[in-house]
Each structure stands twice: as C-alpha cells, then as structure tokens.
Amino acid sequence: MQAIFVFSADQIPPNLAEHLTPASDLRTGLERSADQIQVPTFIVGGYQDLFAQSQMKTYEQIPLPPGQKQILMNDGFHATVGSGAGRPGGPPRLDVLQRAWFDKWLKGIDNGIDQFGPATLFQQGGGWTTGDYPLPGMTHTRQYLSPVPSGTTGVVTHDGSLSSDIPADAADLTVAPGLSTLCSRDAAQATAGVLSIIDGCAKDSRIAEVAALTFTGKAVDSPTVISGPVAVHLNTVHDVTDGYWSVTLNDVAPDGNSKVLSSGQLMASLRAVDDSRSRKSANGDYTEPYQFLDLETRQRTVPGQATTLDIGLTGVHAVLQPGHRVRVDVYASNLPRGFPLPALLIETQLRPQHLVLDPKAPSWVNVPLSRPI
Known about the structure:
- The chain is an alpha+beta fold and 373 residues long.
- It has helices at 14-20, 25-30, 52-61, 94-107, 185-190, 199-202, 342-348; strands spanning 41-48, 69-77, 119-122, 128-131, 139-146, 158-163, 171-175, 213-216, 224-238, 244-252, 258-267, 279-280, 286-288, 306-320, 325-331, 353-357, 364-369.
- The strands form three sheets. Strands 5, 6, 7, 8, 9, 10, 11, 14, 15, 16 and 17 form an eleven-stranded mixed β-sheet that branches. It has a four-stranded mixed β-sheet with strand order 1-2-3-4. Strands 12-13 form a two-stranded antiparallel sheet.
- β12 and β13 (286-288) form a beta hairpin.
- The chain is globular, with a radius of gyration of 21 Å.
- The chain starts with 13 loop residues before the first helix and ends with a strand.
C-alpha cells in the first residue's frame, strides 16, 4: 500500500475524491435512513454524546406516532448516557426501561411503556422533563452579536454582548487558533467523557474562553426555556483561502460559571448550504443549515472579502434560571474535537480570522426561546 500525502485540495487523487462525493457508497452508507424505520424504537443518548445530533434527528425522522418512538436524553457523555436514570426524580434505570419495552413490543404485555415520555429529557439548568421535543411554545429569535462590552467575563480575546436589536456600533474583531479548548466540554465530548473527570474543564468554559470572542446577554429575571435547534450567522473575513470556525452556546451563572449547552463548527470553504435539506424558522433564518460538504461545492474564501457563514449547533433543551445569561463563544480552533483535513488546514495557514460586526451585515444567533430576553 502506498501512502499518499496531500498538501492541497487540488491534489486529492480521483479515487479518494470519489469517496468524498455525496453519491459515493461511503457517504450514502453513513446517511441516516430513520424515515424507513417501521418498528417501535427507543433511543437513549446524552447531550454531550459524540452522536447527540444523530440521536435527536433520528427521533424526529422516525415515521411512527409518539409512544411507538421514544427518546431519553441526559446531560451525559458517550460513556455515561445512563447516568441519572434510577435516581430520585429521574426515569427508571435503563435495564428496567429496556425490559418493559421488549415485553410490550415483543411479548404483547400491556405495561404502559407506550405511554412513557415520549421524550424524556434532562433539561440542562433544571431537572427531568417529559413531553415533546422541541417543547411547544418556543419562538426562534435573533440575538445580535454586539461589540459593546458585557462586563461579565475575565480574560478573553473580546468581551461583547448580545442584543435583540441590531447594534449601532461596528467592529472588526480578530480571533486566532489556540490550544485553550483542550480544557473544554467539547474536549470531554471528543474523548467520550474521559476528560469529564476534570470538572474545571467539562463544567466551566472560562479557561477555554481565554481564546474566544465572547458575546453575553442580559440576565433573565424569570426561568427562560431554550428548546430546539440553534444556528449562528457570522459575517467573517479571512486573510487566506480558508478558515475554521467553532461556536458554542453557553449558560452563564451569576458567579461567572460558563457551561456549554451546544456547539457547532464549520470550514469556511465548505459553507455552501443545501436548502432542500435545511430547516428555517418562521423568521426566515436557518435553524438547521445543512452543508453539502463536498469538493465540487467547495468555495475558497477570498482574502479580505466578507464571507457569511451559517453554522448549525446541536439541539438544546435547557432552562436559564433567574440571574443567568446566554452567551455565544466564537473560536478559530477546537482541539481535540475538531481538526480540519490536512489539505484544508494547510490553506488556513493557522492564520488569525476576523469577525466583522457591521450594522449593515449583522451577525446573530437564532435561538428558540419561551420568552423574549
């Protein structure tokens, strides 16, 4: 077998490029076919699982009525998806649910498991909930990224704020790749929960945020629910022909603790969105942008030219308690969870990247909220 070292996307050989196309056997084999499931299905996962997005999307796409399809999600990692079950205030242990499920659908025993849930979810910032996902009554609203300091952070690349109105002030902010995300909740997620034993990293983003552009909203005065998909729209500029962006949505406590609720990432050159597979909210903004992610639709960035990016984050089911705030963190790297293909990484040259806050071309996060904030 001959090793091939590729230093540019233009050098990718045809036999490898074939596997990167959406129609390839490799890509189609990895596609979910949840809409073809016809048997009762119970999904168990965690918000910090490696496959959290697949779990929530699979549940939504299964064409069965609630009860015949169910989902249980906790705030755990791949190795701890059952944590919290069997404890006071939580659902039964997984083995109890599993037996009841198969007794009902394989043996025909009427034990009421089909009335359980159908979505049994640990609400981050709160406790266990049952019902639907997303919760009804949510309204997707823009929270604009503003350069105005929030005064809520310590040492960060930039302390900005979130606003329900388009900011009047403009700014050109720069963020550079760094290693601070080695101590982050995303790092714990990428290691299937191994790094979750380091509580300072897995439960508080303030170390990772040293290398981030942060944007923090006002403190809420009553419980505010966030339930559903989240997307971020960024107005960016690059000095080279590619860039890498990572974004998190955080719950910031009055004591400053910044806990990741959701995250997403994107190569700038792979920004082309397939609208036929994407979702938008009533306000017309993306909630789930679906990128093509193939070489044919790849668009290199033009140095110095504005480039808009739509980045989807994993679904959220959380509640902001009184005094808490929502925060968006923007990074130019996300090791070890995210690492670009070497051919694309070389084009970034690991150069600093720019987020341009312009009232005429604003950046925002589209958040599903139970009430205005």
